[in-house]
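Minutes, structural biology subgroup

Action item carried over from last meeting: produce the C-alpha cell record for nicotinamidase (Paeniglutamicibacter kerguelensis). EB confirmed the sequence was re-checked against the source entry. Recorded below for completeness.
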Amino acid sequence: MSSEPMNQAGSPAAPHPAARALVIVDVQNDFCEGGSLAVAGGSVVATAIAEDLLARRASYSVVVATQDWHIDPGSHFSETPDFVEAWPVHCVAGSDGAALHPNLAPAVHLVDAAFRKGRFAAAYSGFEGRLALAGAGDDDESGPLLGDWLRDQGITAVDVVGIAADHCVRATALDARKLGFNTTVITPLTASVNPANNAAVFAELRAAGVTVLSLG
Ligand SMILES: [Zn+2]
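Output recorded by EB:
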C-alpha cells in the first residue's frame, strides 16, 4: 500500500508568505440539489467556490477539500431522520453521492489533497478527516489528520467555505480555532441546511474568535 499522498502539490514547497489554507468542506453530490441530503444552494456554492479558487489560488499555500465518507456511521444514518443528529443515508464511501460536485471540476486541479471523515461515526468537523492516500481502501484511516497535515505545511491561517454553514462548516471553523489557526469563514461561499440558523451560528463563530466574512 502506498504511503504517498494523492497529490504532491502541497508537499514541502517553498513557504508561502501568507501560510494560509483554503478548506473546502463537503461540496459533495449528496449535499447539493439532486442528492440524498440536498442543501438548497449547494450547487450554486460549488460554482462560486470554483470561480473564487480560479481567481484567487495564489492567495493560498495549500487548498484542501473534505469529504463526508461513510461506511457504517451508526446512528448518524436513520430511516426517521431528525436532521439534527440523524440524517438520511448520504455520502456512502466510494459512491457517486460522496464524490465532489461537478461544479467544482473547473478548479479541482487546484485542490492539493482530500481529507475524508466519518467512516464509522458521525464527523462534522473536517479536522476529523484524514488524508486520502492514493491506492488505499475506502476504510483506510492511516493518513494524517487535517490539522497535523496543515501544520506540517506551515499553515497558520485557514479560510473555510462549503456545506453546510450550520453544520460541518461551523464544526470545522470551531475546530480550526481550537487548534490555533487564524480562522475565517467566507459566508457567501457557504450554504446552510436551515438559513434561519445563520445568525446564531455566525454569532457563535465570532464569539469563538472566528472571522465571519460576508462580502456583500
Ligand atoms: Zn454525514
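Discussion: The chain has one domain: 20-213.
Next step: EB to file the record with the rest of the batch.
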